[in-house]
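We treat protein structure as text, and this decision shapes the records that our systems exchange. Below, we set out a record of this kind in full and without editing:

***
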Amino acid sequence: MVIGKVIGTVVASRKEPELVGLRLLAVSPIDVRTGALKDGGVVAVDAVGAGVGEVVLYATGSSARQTKETQNRPVDATIMAIVDILEVGGTVLYKKD
Protein backbone atom coordinates (compact mmCIF):
# COMPACT_ATOMS: atom_id res chain seq x y z
CA MET A 1 0.00 0.00 0.00
CA VAL A 2 0.96 3.61 -0.52
CA ILE A 3 0.28 6.53 1.81
CA GLY A 4 -1.21 9.61 0.17
CA LYS A 5 -3.37 12.69 0.59
CA VAL A 6 -6.71 13.21 -1.13
CA ILE A 7 -6.27 16.44 -3.09
CA GLY A 8 -9.47 16.52 -5.11
CA THR A 9 -12.45 14.80 -6.64
CA VAL A 10 -12.88 13.47 -10.15
CA VAL A 11 -16.25 13.61 -11.90
CA ALA A 12 -16.80 11.68 -15.12
CA SER A 13 -20.31 11.89 -16.52
CA ARG A 14 -19.55 9.28 -19.19
CA LYS A 15 -17.68 6.15 -18.20
CA GLU A 16 -17.49 2.40 -18.53
CA PRO A 17 -20.64 0.86 -17.00
CA GLU A 18 -18.50 -1.10 -14.50
CA LEU A 19 -17.41 2.23 -12.98
CA VAL A 20 -20.91 3.63 -12.47
CA GLY A 21 -21.56 4.27 -8.78
CA LEU A 22 -17.90 4.38 -7.77
CA ARG A 23 -16.56 7.60 -6.21
CA LEU A 24 -13.29 8.78 -7.75
CA LEU A 25 -10.72 10.85 -5.85
CA ALA A 26 -7.39 12.42 -6.87
CA VAL A 27 -4.62 11.26 -4.53
CA SER A 28 -1.05 12.52 -4.26
CA PRO A 29 1.58 10.25 -2.66
CA ILE A 30 3.25 11.36 0.57
CA ASP A 31 6.93 11.01 1.46
CA VAL A 32 6.69 8.81 4.56
CA ARG A 33 9.93 10.27 6.00
CA THR A 34 8.92 13.93 5.80
CA GLY A 35 5.15 14.02 5.35
CA ALA A 36 5.56 16.18 2.22
CA LEU A 37 3.56 15.58 -0.93
CA LYS A 38 5.53 13.87 -3.68
CA ASP A 39 5.28 14.41 -7.43
CA GLY A 40 2.76 12.30 -9.27
CA GLY A 41 -0.58 10.97 -8.23
CA VAL A 42 -3.45 8.69 -9.09
CA VAL A 43 -7.18 8.66 -9.49
CA ALA A 44 -8.42 6.12 -6.96
CA VAL A 45 -11.76 4.54 -6.22
CA ASP A 46 -12.90 5.39 -2.69
CA ALA A 47 -13.86 2.23 -0.81
CA VAL A 48 -13.96 3.78 2.69
CA GLY A 49 -15.63 7.21 2.50
CA ALA A 50 -12.52 9.39 2.41
CA GLY A 51 -12.69 13.12 1.78
CA VAL A 52 -10.52 15.89 0.36
CA GLY A 53 -7.65 16.72 2.72
CA GLU A 54 -7.54 13.33 4.41
CA VAL A 55 -4.46 11.13 4.52
CA VAL A 56 -5.21 7.65 3.21
CA LEU A 57 -3.69 4.30 2.35
CA TYR A 58 -4.28 3.16 -1.20
CA ALA A 59 -3.41 0.05 -3.17
CA THR A 60 -2.56 -0.09 -6.84
CA GLY A 61 -2.45 -2.80 -9.48
CA SER A 62 -4.25 -6.10 -8.96
CA SER A 63 -4.49 -5.40 -5.20
CA ALA A 64 -6.83 -2.49 -5.99
CA ARG A 65 -9.44 -5.01 -7.15
CA GLN A 66 -9.55 -6.92 -3.87
CA THR A 67 -12.40 -5.01 -2.19
CA LYS A 68 -16.11 -5.81 -2.44
CA GLU A 69 -16.67 -2.57 -4.37
CA THR A 70 -13.87 -3.06 -6.89
CA GLN A 71 -13.79 -6.81 -7.46
CA ASN A 72 -13.74 -7.59 -11.19
CA ARG A 73 -13.88 -3.90 -12.11
CA PRO A 74 -11.34 -2.03 -14.27
CA VAL A 75 -9.62 -0.07 -11.51
CA ASP A 76 -5.92 0.40 -10.83
CA ALA A 77 -6.02 2.29 -7.51
CA THR A 78 -8.34 1.97 -4.50
CA ILE A 79 -8.39 3.87 -1.21
CA MET A 80 -8.55 1.19 1.47
CA ALA A 81 -8.02 3.08 4.74
CA ILE A 82 -8.15 6.55 6.29
CA VAL A 83 -5.06 7.34 8.38
CA ASP A 84 -5.52 8.64 11.94
CA ILE A 85 -1.84 9.15 12.82
CA LEU A 86 1.41 9.01 10.85
CA GLU A 87 4.39 8.74 13.16
CA VAL A 88 7.97 8.21 12.04
CA GLY A 89 10.86 7.83 14.48
CA GLY A 90 8.82 9.16 17.38
CA THR A 91 7.74 12.28 15.46
CA VAL A 92 4.09 12.70 14.54
CA LEU A 93 4.00 13.89 10.93
CA TYR A 94 0.20 13.83 10.66
CA LYS A 95 -2.68 13.56 13.09
CA LYS A 96 -6.29 13.60 11.94
CA ASP A 97 -8.35 16.41 13.47
